[in-house]
Amino acid sequence: MEIRGKVHEIGAIQQVTESFKKRDLIVAYAENPQFVEYIRFESTQDRVNIFDNLAIGDEIEVSFNLRGRPWTNKDGITTYFNSLVAWRVTKLANTGTAASAPGFAEMPAPVDITSSGADDDDLPF
To answer: Lowest CB count within 10 Å: 11, 35, 104, 124, which one?
Structure first.
């Protein structure tokens, strides 16, 4: 699977056990620029260095696998987890092609939802 977005955050390498390490990458995905999604990808073992040449704000394409697994707690209740495991990250050139792709429109400024003015309430309910 592949997705395009902008680098939002690059995590540090985490040495989980003596033989296992991982690293996270948060990508701002704006298929609809009004509702930006922040998607966490992870890389493991020898692929933790694929995020090394990235910087915050870079436009990228992430190739990844979707993984899922069950975990049963001590009470016998099973929970399911999903992971997006990145195996390749490609920086996109700032060309017209990349700019016109989904998720690359200018992201709008955050909206202040704390306003309590009754005059500007145009919701139908």
So the answer is: 124
Instruction: Report strand pairing: 2-10 vs 37-44.
Output: unpaired
Across the chain, which has 125 residues, the per-10-residue mean pLDDT values are 96 94 96 92 95 95 96 96 96 60 50 52 56
**Cβ-based burial of 24 (10 A; exposed 0-12, middle 13-18, buried ≥19):** middle
How many Cβ atoms from other residues are within 10 Å of residue 25's Cβ? 23
The answer to whether the CB of 27 falls within 8 A of the CB of 101 is: no
HEC profile of 19-84: CEEEEEEEEEECCCCCCCEEEEEEEEHHHHHHHCCCCCCCEEEEEEEEEEEEEECCCCCEEEEEEE
pLDDT at position 93? 83
CA diameter of the chain:
60
Please state the pTM of the whole predicted model.
0.70
